[in-house]
Amino acid sequence: MDFLFNSGIPGLIYDTLRGIGYPHPVHPIFTHPPIGLTVGGFLFLLAAVVFKRPGLFQTARHCMVLTLIIFPFTVFFGWVDWVHFYGGTFLFPFQMKLVLAGFFLLFLFWGGFRAIKSNTGPGKLLFINFLTFLVVIGLGFFGGEIVYGDRAAAKPPTGETPGGVQPAEEGQGREQLVSLGADLFSDQCAMCHYTDKTATKIGPGLKGLFVGNILPASGRKVSEANIRSQLRNPYEDMPAFADLTEKQVEGLIAYLNTL
Question: What is the pLDDT averaged over residues 133-161?
């Protein structure tokens, strides 16, 4: 278990990728092929049964075999992204993805074994592929929850910021800064922090952060300087965000002021 969370492999992979100008998660690249092949295989099987076309059945079998070949890479880079971007935290969507990935692998082996057998017709495989297709839908749903689930809550409010009515140009600049911070929070922070309540998610909820006197968890005084410090040198299990630009930090602080 210690290897799962403390391995240096994810950091090494992303340090290398950043060195060649690729800062994005790798898992999605290896997610789409098995999903596409699973959906394609199911549709080819369905067409083979309906239209009685052996050629389509053969294509479906090839899809299943290719999915089995690619899936280990999908799992590996899923682990890499999970450790690197989410610190190995067991949010409910991650728990569901792990369970569904287990079923997906089970159905893949079951269907792949039946597909290799020469006496297995398309009708016998159709049910297995239908179950795999349903699992893919579930994986896609919970993957979307991880990426987009809190995005709406992280959007900046329209109208005035807590500073009151501002001149038009200053207000527009402030609104752009808040929008930048909201997008950054959505991408980097929303998986661990609520913005609409103070309850703990993985880290503490941040609603009303600048209304209080102390930062949650760390107990430091609420100030822009302390937030900047905590981003660079985080408290306990919070990951460091030392690579943020000054404008990104300003945007994040501006957004936190609106909560």
Answer: 69
